[in-house]
Design goal:
- This protein has about 450 residues and is α+β, with helices and mostly antiparallel strands.
- It is about 45% helix and about 20% strand.
- It contains 13 helices and 15 strands.
- A 4-stranded antiparallel β-sheet has the order 11-10-12-13.
- The radius of gyration is 27 Å and the shape is elongated.
- It starts with a helix and ends with a helix.
């Protein structure tokens, strides 16, 4: 069921993004009296699932069967349709190629512009409806839990983060991203009352790109919920209990429990919990996995910061958030094209995108991811690669600067090369997904 919910969210999100993007092209093409022959959600090679053409309209509207995007077919434009027969005929006044360069440029960049505007609107709506809640860096009162990458850099469980490259990071969840996107060199921590300056190796960037957690907030182990057939629940453990011991070993934090409980596989071990002010010892049976079927709760542990936005405050805040996300995505893209980062190994396709949606329908998560994907679509589309909007814009700008229009043959070759590159990337990214599934 979780998989179906993720697929439904992915399709709904991509459909919205594609329609908005293509509507940007469509509305400005119409504004400049340019004939639009097709407006399709998804691609329709050989056949379409649905199509109709209003009376006295030049445009056929439809839904294709291949959910890899969508398109508008603008008359007189060399695009993915590669309609050479139309291009061989003399240009007509209502065709794209007959319009002035500045009009063609506006039509091309309108799709990206609409995606950015959509993102701003979604973020504004999120901030107005839900506000913004986050854990401040200084709010990690128990310090951090380090993964192997952080430990190699000299960090230790319980360290309190002061700054990165001498800069204070406002949100705890933004520390790892800041290190990655800015290729930070140092991190400042407090350990046992002493301030330490630790060097960050360049080798951590490829690991962070592959999804290394690096650090996470440290917290005590308070029981939030139980898994099905939980041995801890069967032993009498209750929600709200705080686990403070395994056998004769005192336990203060969740990471300590997780590190030590595996030593008691296939045994029954005394686990001490605090319930209200009472200390209780429960005999918990462990199987070969070393799991007791308990989920930790962070509710009430941290002092979260909540910011509320009024309607007129949310609009500029949403625009600012969109530009920050777009800037950070561009930084990440810069890292991806660096061979030394080996970021190409972490590229994913539709399966990877689908997994970022939650397994349960949550509108806040849905709109947040849709806004991010809208920015991602805008950034990728404006890249100066043939077959993308940025490639078309590049040739139009060349024409405006040199006063010379590239030949149709040159445009056809560039479009073909661009399509080959895009399909190769699509196959590689989705192939990565499939390989990861088998792994």
């Amino acid at each position: 069921m979780e998989t179906l919910i993720r697929i439904a969210q992915l399709l709904l999100s991509l459909s919205l993004l594609v329609i908005i993007h293509e509507f940007g092209h469509f509305i400005f093409a119409k504004a400049f009296k340019t004939r639009v022959e097709k407006f399709y959600l998804f691609f329709d090679p050989w056949f379409s699932l649905f199509k109709f053409k209003p009376k006295n309209s030049d445009t056929e509207y439809g839904i294709g069967w291949l959910p890899l995007g969508g398109y508008v077919k603008i008359a007189g434009m060399i695009d993915e349709s590669m309609d050479k027969e139309q291009m061989a005929l003399p240009p007509k006044p209502d065709e794209f190629r007959s319009k002035k360069p500045w009009q063609r440029l506006i039509i091309i960049v309108a799709g990206v512009t609409f995606n950015l505007l959509l993102s701003m609107g979604i973020y504004a709506g999120i901030l107005y409806t839900w506000g913004e809640e986050y854990l401040p860096t200084e709010g990690m009162k128990y310090g951090v839990v380090c993964d192997s990458t952080a430990i190699e850099c000299g960090l230790r469980n319980g360290d309190k983060i002061i700054s990165v490259d001498g800069e204070h990071i406002k949100k705890a969840t933004g520390i790892t991203a800041h290190i990655l996107l800015n290729e930070s060199k140092t991190i400042q921590v407090e350990r046992n009352g002493e301030i330490l300056n630790l060097n960050l190796s360049d080798s951590i960037i490829p690991r962070l790109l592959k999804g290394a957690s690096f650090i996470s907030p440290r917290m005590p182990f308070i029981v939030g919920d139980f898994a099905k057939n939980s041995s801890a629940k069967e032993a009498g453990m209750q929600k709200g209990d705080r686990i403070v011991g395994i056998d004769t070993m005192p336990i203060e934090y969740f990471d300590e429990f997780r590190a030590n409980i595996v030593n008691y596989r296939n045994t029954t071990v005394p686990v001490t919990v605090l319930r209200d002010t009472q200390s209780i010892v429960l005999n918990v049976s462990l199987d070969s996995t070393g799991l007791i079927g308990v989920m930790a709760s962070s509710e009430g542990i941290f002092d979260l910061c909540k910011v509320e936005y009024g309607f007129f405050e949310a609009i500029p805040a949403g625009a600012k958030k969109s530009f920050v996300v777009a800037r950070d995505y561009l930084k990440q893209f810069k890292l991806i094209v660096k061979p030394e980062t080996k970021a190409y190994e972490s590229l994913g396709g539709f399966i990877a995108i689908g997994k970022i949606f939650p397994g349960e329908w949550d509108w806040l998560s849905f709109w947040s991811m849709t806004s991010f994907l809208s920015i991602m679509l805008a950034v990728l589309n404006i890249l100066p690669i043939p077959a993308l909007d940025g490639g078309h814009a590049m040739f139009i700008l060349y024409e405006m600067i040199t006063r010379r229009k590239p030949s149709d043959k040159a445009m056809e070759i560039a479009q073909t090369i661009g399509l080959v590159l895009l399909f190769a990337l699509l196959i590689y990214a989705n192939g990565n997904d499939i390989i990861k599934l088998f792994r």
